[in-house]
Here is the input.
Amino acid sequence: MTELEKGPTGRRRGRGARERILGAAQELFREQGINRTGMDQLCAAAEVSKRTAYQHFAGKDELVAEYLRRFDPSVLSGVFDRTDLTPRERLLAAFDVPPTTPLCPYIATAVELHDPQHPASQYARDYKQAVAARLADAAREAGAADPEQLGEQLALLIDGAAARTRVLNADAFPTAAAIAAVLIDNAIPATAGDDRRREEVSS
Amino acid sequence: MTELEKGPTGRRRGRGARERILGAAQELFREQGINRTGMDQLCAAAEVSKRTAYQHFAGKDELVAEYLRRFDPSVLSGVFDRTDLTPRERLLAAFDVPPTTPLCPYIATAVELHDPQHPASQYARDYKQAVAARLADAAREAGAADPEQLGEQLALLIDGAAARTRVLNADAFPTAAAIAAVLIDNAIPATAGDDRRREEVSS
DNA sequence: CGGTAAGCACACAGGGCGGTGTACTTAAGT
DNA sequence: ACTTAAGTACACCGCCCTGTGTGCTTACCG
Here is the structure.
């Protein structure tokens, strides 16, 4: 519905079917969830015939898996490549999500599918572990005493904020960011302080 | 399947239909999720005729709402009433969940239903806020500087652990408990230390 | 004992879903 | 121009799901 750039011909949109399908999936799965989005509706939104959809994807399951795989982790990749930030700032930047973010689709998919064996569930697992690993890398760069632990902790905070935001319908990322700041300051030895305030920890 | 105490008559189980239905819902919704559990299957598991089920509940939605409402928050209520623990220990005890806990059903329900207006979603919201409030109470009792903030933070940790446990298929509560310990020690002024170690904060 | 509320068995309606079959049309490459 | 890959239109199948209609049986309680 947003900007599906309809082809110039008006009908018979041409060769971009697969991309249009994945684009529509992105939108509809986010807005309605996977289970509540039928293939008919999805194909209509993608302006693609159902037949074409099933020539690109063996079934809905495969489409769901590909949808997750193609999901643009804009928050993540955008954050870790920013060299203008100190490592500590980079760790904290992971919590600056635009308020228009509905919910981490990886969690939503894993819960909705309810099957750990599903390819999409496996990919969600891989992705979450990758995020923790990248956070651990940044933590190591920032001089954390136990980077793996800090990475795992920050990843848990992100997931907690995402879940809580969904259930309460209220942005929980600021709370998570506050916790993250405490953890980071506690984990990084005072010597490595790049931009830490002088005052020691909290009280 | 666990201990549905089947009636002595063998068939025609008698008047306990409503309880049996809710018991079966508890089990099946947890194990399979709500959307993947049909009313037929549920009635079979409850040893109740479908007709009876629909005389007790106007529809599946109402059953789901009642299921959440009747959910025994064994972890929660069991923890806050323990007077043998110091307030700090009580806060930490909320993270000692038995490893057989699949996932906080409130999060799962909110994600599965995908409709914030659904009665069950509203109840999930209420419940999550109640948990945060009780945690804040305990935090106040423990002498935290900002009990509301600490309560909200601990609640976020619990939700994060629950979500992450589900997605990764690995217990994330120890990590959350470790974070909680840091937060609690940072939030409670040193004077009120009931059982804190002497060494200052982490490093 | 008799009445009434609770429960049962079972078929069936109505709809949505995932997925397919068939015959047709268009665009692109050489 | 001809071929071929991509897409289309649309009817259709079988399945499962929520929810009902109907007539019957049992347990409790005064």
